[in-house]
Amino acid sequence: xxxxxxxxxxxxxxxxxxxxxxxxxxxxxxxxxxxxxxxxxxxxxxxxxxxxxxxxxxxxxxxxxxxxxxxxxxxxxxxxxxxxxxxxxxxxxxxxxxxxxxxxxxxxxxxxxxxxxxxxxxxxxxxxxxxxxxxxxxxxxxxxxxxxxxxxxxxxxxxxxxxxxxxxxxxxxxxxxxxxxxxxxxxxxxxxxxxxxxxxxxxxxxxxxxxxxxxxxxxxxxxxxxxxxxxxxxxxxxxxxxxxxxxxxxxxxxxxxxxxxxxxxxxxxxxxxxxxxxxxxxxxxxxxxxxxxxxxxxxxxxxxxxx
Length: 307
Description:
By secondary structure, the protein is mostly helical. The chain has helices spanning 7-17, 19-36, 42-46, 49-68, 72-95, 101-114, 117-120, 128-144, 161-173, 182-201, 216-234, 239-260, 267-287. It is built from 13 helices and no strands. The longest helix is centred in the N-terminal third of the chain and has 24 residues, at 72-95.
């Protein structure tokens, strides 16, 4: 087809080829409708868009864990869990008369075609970077056609502070407010580090303690974290995902240290070892290869079923 024969033909052929997939989606839609309907599941019936938000974030993280673990079966399962969250939100919206899953699919189809003029139109993309520039250009044109709200208002606040920092930086870069490269952004990190240390050195004892009002130390540390998120973005990394992987590495290395103390009493033996003994055990653990990331047994413990 070559991607140049018109969006209508592309969409029509895709629909014809996806007949079986459409039937599967229709069955799933019916299942979710049953769960939400009379005689259905009390848990599903009690949900709202807001109450489901933590679950879609959790399921997305479990997709990442399955990818990191190189486990295709787990990835298949976790993608299904994400799809369930989409179907639940769409069902809630349908009950409220807002939109249906059909509207979701139609909107996605239209967006994909509109943002790929180098596939479904006359433009050409030389490489992946050029395709990204075209995509970003279409997004900017879409945003320019929408006069409502400020430029940064479309960056969500609910996905975690590092994810928000990534989104704010990328959104600001779309209007030219950005560093030219990661090393230039690193100079901002050094600047913010100096300002943080100055604030810390001048802080009164107890400043920054849990529950204390935000002050210069917290403010400067926040600026430092924001600058680090910009460096990650310019390196092509996602700060939230990068930290999540570091957290996972810490978990696995701590588990190795804990295992080394198992014969002597486990956690109590670790406490008796003191800082010096734990440091030695940590250094030994760093010399050994880390075990592969482990998925939580049976998926998320916060789920009822697969929720």
